[in-house]
Task: inverse folding
């Protein structure tokens, strides 16, 4: 067992699950989407990105790209949240919440691609 | 650059980045959890936006104060902890970057990728020199002085450092790597479309052989010139198509014989193959009597056999005759002592060659020999260029500098590919012809070794000549060898040979008509070389040179000329 692989897989899966947890719930209801969960998703996603830095393999490059997409989407969601609540007087309306959650939904897709690639790489190594 | 260095930076930055992200996350989350109160005294917890803001300015120890409300005790406690965590994380990250920049392996990777890019971006012909010893340094200097581009490969750190310190006028990428590994030669530009030639002048015969093989297999059309220390290596290199094999010792032996047998031809060869702009040597003729050769190494052996072949008697003096496979009549001894030299017959000898591998021994032999026989012709081998001042002081008729011999032979090969042909043809002429030519060269050279160059009558090299030929004008050699501003004043140059469809003419006369595709070998001063370029490129100038008619060009002048004719 390779500890590095465990940590790597752990963070990729954790990014996916946290993202999924935040996404889950009524689409435009602020009560169903916890801000701590979004924060955790961003941090774990960033850590997963750093872990993929400097990979020379083709699959490593695609993993890094997927991870960067997820970071971008999640940070965009956090920015929408912050601007709506603190920079303007809009507040956390259902429309704002819907755009935050849909942005995190995009990140969820990127994270699923990451996880799928990880599974493919692992199974190809097994053979 | 991107391929090798950036992933290295990223991999090294992984741990500090992880530490930074974690430190920020812990600090931000902690701050949102700490109980506080707003300005009205109602319980309040900081939101993520403000927590991130506060940590962002406290982490680099900027500190704007307690925003948006005064902190509670719990919040102050947490901010204190956060400062320690995040500042340490930053120190770690910055320290890692600095240590990475100072890491020798990293720096050499950066340097190599910069050199690699410099070679890839070459957009003019360049020569790849493997081995930057005495010979390589001489070659690099002579080539860069002529504005030729050079790439150097040497595996010794000191050599590349000395190259970096030297100001050669143009940028010379110097790779510190083993030239015997084919991939390294590719990095240095062997497959590059502008690689005009590869020169292998390392001290190791096997390494030179390996470079020659690599070059001929990977890019057979590239000119390959290699140094060989023995005739076996030379034969081996020639067998797979190495364009030129130079061997300092047999080269010297041949020259010595030439100097003894036909001194004027030797002077011609000496001048035409010397390193241009150095002092024009005029050496006394070596004698035909008995020679004493001290040291039966590679040089001694080559000279001994050459002398014997041409019927000149030679006596060998060697310290370890059993070891060096000497002829039976060898005199045992170093040659540095008077009695050894006396036994070798110094009193009646005509010439002496000090050919040991030790410069101190050679100088000692020279001084002893001079004391014993004042009229002796003395030649000595100079192994190390740094001893040049000593050899200049010693009373020596001929200094054998292997690195100079090698460099000049390679240089003449690169500068004027026709020169070897010319010399071979010239050797067949009689002594009178040699004397006349030597006189002419000496007259134009003005005390320095002349340049030799080849001119090809083609659209790329001399568009004006081609244009004139297409217009039906007769272009004679005289049109090129006179001053572009005064057509009656000859330039300091000599047309040595004209090559037309494999037929060569030695010393073509001035009224020879040129044709497209001709190749002409010239020798002359650097100024003549520069002056010759003008009529090659400008048809008006060429017309003036050929007919004396100075015609203005441009719309107005053409109109006026037409008016004047009408």
Result:
């Amino acid at each position: 067992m390779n500890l590095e692989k465990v940590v790597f897989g752990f963070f990729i899966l954790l990014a996916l699950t946290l993202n999924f947890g935040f996404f889950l719930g009524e689409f435009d209801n602020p009560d169903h989407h916890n801000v701590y969960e979004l924060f955790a998703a961003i941090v774990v996603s960033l850590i997963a990105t750093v872990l993929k830095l400097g990979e020379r393999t083709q699959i490593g490059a695609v993993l890094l790209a997927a991870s960067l997409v997820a970071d971008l989407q999640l940070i965009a969601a956090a920015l929408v949240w912050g601007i709506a609540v603190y920079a303007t007087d809009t507040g956390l309306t259902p429309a704002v919440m819907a755009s935050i959650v849909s942005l995190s939904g995009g990140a969820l897709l990127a994270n699923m691609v990451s996880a799928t690639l990880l599974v493919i790489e692992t199974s190809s190594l097994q053979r | 650059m991107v391929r090798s260095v950036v992933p290295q930076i990223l991999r090294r930055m992984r741990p500090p980045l992880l530490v930074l992200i974690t430190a920020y996350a812990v600090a931000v989350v902690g701050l949102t959890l700490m109980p506080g109160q707003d300005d009205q005294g109602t319980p309040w917890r900081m939101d993520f936006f403000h927590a991130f803001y506060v940590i962002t300015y406290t982490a680099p120890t900027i500190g704007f104060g307690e925003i948006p409300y005064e902190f509670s005790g719990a919040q102050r406690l947490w901010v204190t902890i956060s400062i320690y965590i995040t500042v340490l994380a930053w120190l770690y990250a910055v320290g890692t970057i600095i240590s990475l920049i100072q890491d020798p392996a990293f720096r050499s990777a950066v340097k190599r990728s910069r050199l690699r890019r410099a070679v890839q971006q070459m957009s003019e012909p360049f020569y790849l020199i493997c081995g930057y010893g005495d010979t390589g340094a001489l070659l690099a200097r002579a080539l860069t002085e002529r504005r030729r581009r050079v790439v150097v490969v040497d595996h010794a750190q000191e050599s590349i450092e000395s190259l970096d310190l030297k100001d050669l006028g143009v940028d010379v990428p110097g790779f510190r790597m083993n030239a015997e590994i084919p991939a390294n030669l590719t990095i240095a530009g062997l497959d590059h479309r502008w690689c005009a030639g590869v020169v292998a002048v390392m001290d190791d015969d096997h390494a030179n052989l390996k470079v020659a093989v690599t070059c001929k297999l990977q890019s057979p059309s590239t000119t390959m010139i290699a140094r060989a220390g023995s005739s076996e290596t030379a034969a081996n290199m020639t067998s797979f198509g190495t364009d030129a094999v130079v061997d300092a010792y047999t080269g010297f032996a041949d020259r010595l014989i030439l100097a003894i047998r036909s001194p004027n031809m030797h002077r011609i060869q000496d001048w035409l193959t010397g390193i241009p702009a150095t002092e024009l040597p005029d050496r006394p003729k070596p004698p035909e009597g008995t020679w004493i050769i001290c040291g039966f190494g590679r040089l001694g052996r080559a000279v001994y056999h050459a002398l014997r072949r041409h019927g000149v008697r030679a006596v060998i003096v060697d310290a370890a005759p059993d070891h060096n496979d000497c002829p039976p009549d060898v005199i045992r001894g170093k040659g540095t002592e008077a009695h050894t030299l006396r036994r070798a017959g110094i009193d009646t000898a005509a010439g002496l060659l000090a050919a040991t591998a030790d410069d101190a021994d050679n100088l000692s032999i020279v001084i002893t020999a001079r004391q014993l026989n004042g009229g002796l012709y003395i030649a000595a081998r100079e192994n190390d260029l740094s001893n040049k001042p000593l050899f200049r002081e010693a009373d020596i008729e001929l200094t054998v500098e292997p690195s100079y011999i090698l460099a000049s032979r390679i240089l003449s090969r690169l500068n004027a590919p026709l020169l070897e042909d010319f010399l071979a043809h010239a050797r067949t002429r009689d002594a009178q012809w040699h004397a006349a030519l030597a006189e002419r060269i000496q007259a134009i050279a003005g005390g320095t070794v002349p340049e030799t160059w080849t001119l090809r009558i083609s659209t790329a090299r001399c568009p004006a000549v081609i244009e004139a030929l297409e217009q039906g004008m007769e272009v004679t050699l005289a049109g090129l060898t006179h001053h572009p501003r005064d057509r009656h004043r000859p330039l300091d140059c000599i047309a040595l040979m004209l090559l037309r469809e494999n037929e060569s003419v030695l010393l073509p006369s001035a009224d020879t008509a040129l044709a497209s595709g001709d190749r002409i070998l010239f020798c002359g001063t650097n100024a003549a070389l520069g002056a010759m370029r003008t009529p090659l490129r400008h048809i008006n100038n060429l017309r003036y040179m050929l007919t004396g008619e100075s015609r203005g060009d441009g719309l107005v002048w053409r109109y006026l000329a037409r008016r004047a004719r009408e």
In short: Chain B has four domains: 5-102, 122-246, 258-416, 450-559.
